[in-house]
User: Which sequence fits this backbone?
C-alpha cells in the first residue's frame, strides 16, 4: 500500500495562521509574531524528523505524557491536534503506526523530556546542602542537554494542592566523574593511548549551582526533596523578575531568553531607577566591546518613553554628554523612516534577527527610539553662532552664578590647597557682581600684584593673600583661558550658556564636550549638574520659580520632575582615592541627595575600581559588560557570584550582567543594537 506524503507546507501555514494557537503563544508563552513563526517551524521540522511523533495515535500518547510533565506545552500540542483533526484529510499525516510496530515508551519519554524542558533533579548532600536561597542539581545524562551560567530554570515543588514553582538562575556548572585524578585517567585509557576507543565510557555527572529568584509560595525555606528541574518559560521568568514591580512603574532594562528562545523583557522599577526611592545607574566594561554607550542609549530611549499612568504625560528629561568620538552625535542618522521599517531590515539582514526580535518586543511596549532621538537637541562648544548646531560658551558671571566650585574645577585638583581655596572665595566676593569678565579678573589681579610690589601680601576681597599664591593663580588662569578659547568668553561678563531651563519632559539634550581639555569637561559637567540640582530642589519643595545667579526661572511647572544625566568616563569626574577635588566633592554631594529630588546619574567607565566608593554606594542599579579577571578581583565586584563572575570575560557585545534594586539576584540580559549603527 502506497503511503502518501504529509502536506507539511500546508500544516505549517495552517498552524501559523490559527487564531487559537497564535493567541495561546502570545498570551501564555509571551511570543511575538516572528517568534510564533519560529516556534511553529521548529515543531513541524521536529515532526518531519520524527523527534516529535508524526503518527497521530503516537502523537496523542505523546501529548498525554507531555501534559503531565508540562501542562503549558501540553495545551499547545492539544491545540495543534485540534487543527490537524479539523482538516478533512488531516494533512495526510498517518493515523496509525505501520503494522507490526508498537509504541516504545522509552522513546516517547525521551521526546517528552526534551519538549517539556525537564533537565534534572535537585540534589541535597553533605557536600551540596540546600539553603533557603541556593541549591544544587544534576543534569540528565544527555550530551544535547545543556545549561550555562545565567540560564533560568524552574523547580516544581510538590504540594497537597497545586504544585508550587520556584524560578532560579544557574550560577555555576561543573562536570564530575569518579576518576580520582588525571594519572588514573591516563592509565585507564589503554595506558595513555588517545586513539583507542574504549568499550565502556565512564559516566560524567554535571552538577550545577543555582540561586533562587522567586517562589510562588513566597517561603524562605530550603528544599527538602529531589524535585524536578525544568528550563523556565517566558511567562514564568517575567513573573519572577517583575512580581515586585507594579505594571505602572515598569521600565524595560533588557531581555533574557527562555528555554524555547523566546525573548523575555526584563523590567526595572521607575521609582528605584529615577527617584525618589533610589537612583543612579553604573555601567562598566572594556572599551569598544562592552557596549556601554549602546546600552545607555537603549535605556535612555526606554526611560524617555515612560509616561505617568494617571496623567499620560512624560515625567523624565535627559541630558547626555558626548565625551569621546561621535558616539552620541550620530543618533539622528537613521536610514529608516519608521521603527517597523528598521525591524524589517534587521530581520532580513544576516546575524541581526535577534536584534529584530528585541526591537519588536520594545515596540509592543511603545518604545520608539527613532521618534525620540530625532527630536534630540545638540549643543557644541563655540563662540561664533552656527546655523548647523547650537553653540555654547560661558562668561565669568555664568560660571560664578551656578557656584564657585564650578569655577574652581577649571584648575587641576593638585593646584588647590587651603591657601588657593581661600583666594577663590575672596575673588568671588570681589568679582561676582554680574558685570566683570575674565579679562577684568586677569587685569585686576595683575594690577594688585604690581601694586603689592615687594610686600608679601596682596589684598583681594578685603582679605590679604600671599603674593606667591596670587601669582600662581594668575599664571594658571592665563593658561586655562588659552586652552579653553572654544567655550570661554573673556571680554564679556556673559556668554551663551546651555539653556538647561528649556529642557522638557520626554526630551533629550546632547552636549558635546569631546573636544575640550579635561578641565573644560569638568567645568561643563559640573555646571549642568549644579544647575539641575538647584532647579529640582526648588521644584521638589513646591516652588514655582527659582533664581540661579542672574537667571530667574519663573515657571517650574514646565520643567521635568525628574532628570537623568548620562556621562561616559565617569572616573575623570569622580576618581577613586583620597583626593577631594571640588568637582568630586560636589558630585558626591549631588549624587547622595539626587534620588530625593529626582536627579539620576547614569555613569559609565571602563573600570569601576577607578570610581569613588561613595558614588557606587549610592547607586541602585549596576551593569557589567565584558571585563578582565584582574579588574573583577576588585572588591566592588563581590556582589557577583563566582560562577557568573567567570562568565563576565566571555560576555558578547549586546550582553550585560545586571543587578537592579528590585531584583534579588544578578542576571544576564541582552539588549539590541542601536538602530543608527545597524550598518557597523
Assistant:
Amino acid at each position: 500500500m502506497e503511503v502518501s506524503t504529509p502536506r507539511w507546507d500546508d500544516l505549517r501555514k495552517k498552524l501559523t495562521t490559527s487564531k487559537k494557537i497564535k493567541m495561546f503563544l502570545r498570551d501564555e508563552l509571551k511570543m511575538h509574531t516572528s517568534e510564533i513563526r519560529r516556534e511553529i517551524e521548529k515543531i513541524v521540522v521536529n515532526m518531519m524528523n520524527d523527534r516529535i511523533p508524526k503518527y497521530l495515535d503516537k502523537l496523542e500518547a505523546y501529548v498525554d505524557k507531555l501534559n503531565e510533565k508540562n501542562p503549558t506545552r501540553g495545551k499547545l500540542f492539544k491545540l495543534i491536534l485540534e487543527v490537524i483533526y479539523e482538516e478533512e484529510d488531516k494533512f495526510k499525516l498517518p493515523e496509525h503506526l505501520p503494522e507490526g510496530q508498537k509504541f516504545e515508551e522509552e522513546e516517547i519519554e525521551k521526546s517528552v523530556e526534551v519538549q517539556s524542558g525537564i533537565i534534572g533533579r535537585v540534589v541535597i548532600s553533605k557536600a551540596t546542602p540546600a539553603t533557603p536561597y541556593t541549591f544544587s542539581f544534576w543534569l540528565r545524562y544527555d550530551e544535547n542537554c545543556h545549561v550555562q551560567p545565567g540560564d533560568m530554570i524552574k523547580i516544581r515543588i510538590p504540594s497537597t494542592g497545586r504544585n508550587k514553582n520556584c524560578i532560579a538562575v544557574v550560577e555555576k556548572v561543573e562536570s564530575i566523574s569518579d576518576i580520582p585524578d588525571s594519572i588514573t585517567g591516563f592509565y585507564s585509557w589503554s595506558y595513555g593511548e588517545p586513539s583507542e576507543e574504549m568499550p565502556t565510557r565512564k559516566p560524567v555527572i554535571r552538577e550545577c549551582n543555582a540561586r533562587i529568584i522567586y517562589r510562588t509560595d513566597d517561603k524562605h525555606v530550603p528544599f527538602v526533596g529531589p524535585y524536578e528541574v525544568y528550563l523556565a518559560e517566558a511567562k514564568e521568568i517575567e513573573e519572577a523578575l517583575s512580581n515586585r514591580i507594579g505594571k505602572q512603574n515598569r521600565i524595560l532594562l533588557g531581555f533574557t531568553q527562555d528555554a524555547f528562545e523566546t525573548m523575555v523583557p526584563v523590567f526595572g522599577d521607575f521609582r528605584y531607577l529615577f527617584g525618589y526611592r533610589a537612583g543612579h545607574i553604573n555601567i562598566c566594561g572594556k572599551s569598544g566591546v562592552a557596549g556601554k554607550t549602546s546600552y545607555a542609549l537603549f535605556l535612555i530611549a526606554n526611560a524617555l518613553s515612560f509616561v505617568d499612568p494617571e496623567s499620560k504625560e512624560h515625567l523624565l528629561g535627559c541630558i547626555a554628554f558626548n565625551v569621546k568620538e561621535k558616539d552620541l552625535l550620530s543618533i539622528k542618522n537613521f536610514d529608516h523612516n519608521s521603527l517597523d521599517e528598521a525591524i524589517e531590515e534587521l530581520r532580513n539582514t544576516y546575524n541581526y534577527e535577534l536584534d529584530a526580535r528585541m526591537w519588536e518586543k520594545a515596540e509592543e511596549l511603545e518604545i520608539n527610539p527613532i521618534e525620540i532621538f530625532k527630536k534630540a537637541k545638540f549643543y557644541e562648544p563655540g563662540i561664533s553662532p552656527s546655523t548647523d548646531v547650537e553653540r555654547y560658551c560661558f562668561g565669568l558671571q555664568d560660571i560664578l552664578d551656578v557656584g564657585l566650585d564650578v569655577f574652581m574645577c577649571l584648575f587641576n585638583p593638585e593646584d588647590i590647597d587651603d591657601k588657593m581655596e581661600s583666594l577663590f572665595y575672596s575673588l568671588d566676593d570681589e568679582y561676582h557682581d554680574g558685570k566683570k569678565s575674565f579679562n577684568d579678573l586677569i587685569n585686576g589681579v595683575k594690577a594688585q600684584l604690581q601694586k603689592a610690589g615687594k610686600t608679601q601680601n596682596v589684598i583681594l576681597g578685603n582679605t590679604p593673600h600671599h603674593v606667591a599664591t596670587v601669582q600662581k593663580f594668575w599664571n594658571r588662569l592665563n593658561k586655562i583661558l588659552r586652552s579653553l578659547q572654544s567655550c570661554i568668553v573673556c571680554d564679556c561678563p556673559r556668554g551663551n550658556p546651555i539653556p538647561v531651563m528649556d529642557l522638557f519632559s520626554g526630551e533629550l539634550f546632547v552636549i558635546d564636550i569631546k573636544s575640550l581639555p579635561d578641565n573644560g569637561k569638568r567645568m561643563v559637567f559640573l555646571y549642568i549638574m549644579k544647575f539641575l540640582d538647584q532647579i529640582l530642589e526648588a521644584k521638589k519643595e513646591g516652588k514655582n520659580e527659582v533664581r540661579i545667579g542672574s537667571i530667574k526661572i519663573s515657571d517650574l511647572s514646565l520643567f521635568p520632575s525628574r532628570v537623568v544625566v548620562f556621562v561616559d568616563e565617569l572616573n575623570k569626574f569622580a576618581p577613586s582615592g583620597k583626593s577631594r577635588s571640588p568637582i568630586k566633592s560636589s558630585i558626591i554631594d549631588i549624587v547622595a541627595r539626587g534620588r530625593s529630588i529626582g536627579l539620576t546619574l547614569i555613569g559609565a567607565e571602563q573600570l569601576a575600581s577607578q570610581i569613588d566608593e561613595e558614588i557606587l554606594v549610592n547607586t541602585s542599579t549596576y551593569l557589567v559588560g565584558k571585563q578582565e579577571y584582574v579588574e573583577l578581583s576588585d572588591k566592588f565586584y563581590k556582589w557577583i557570584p563566582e560562577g557568573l563572575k567567570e562568565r563576565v570575560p566571555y560576555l558578547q557585545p549586546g550582553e550585560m550582567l545586571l543587578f537592579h534594586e528590585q531584583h534579588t539576584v544578578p542576571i544576564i540580559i541582552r539588549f539590541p543594537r542601536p538602530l543608527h549603527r545597524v550598518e557597523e
Summary: The radius of gyration is 32 Å. Residues 518-540 form the longest helix (23 residues).
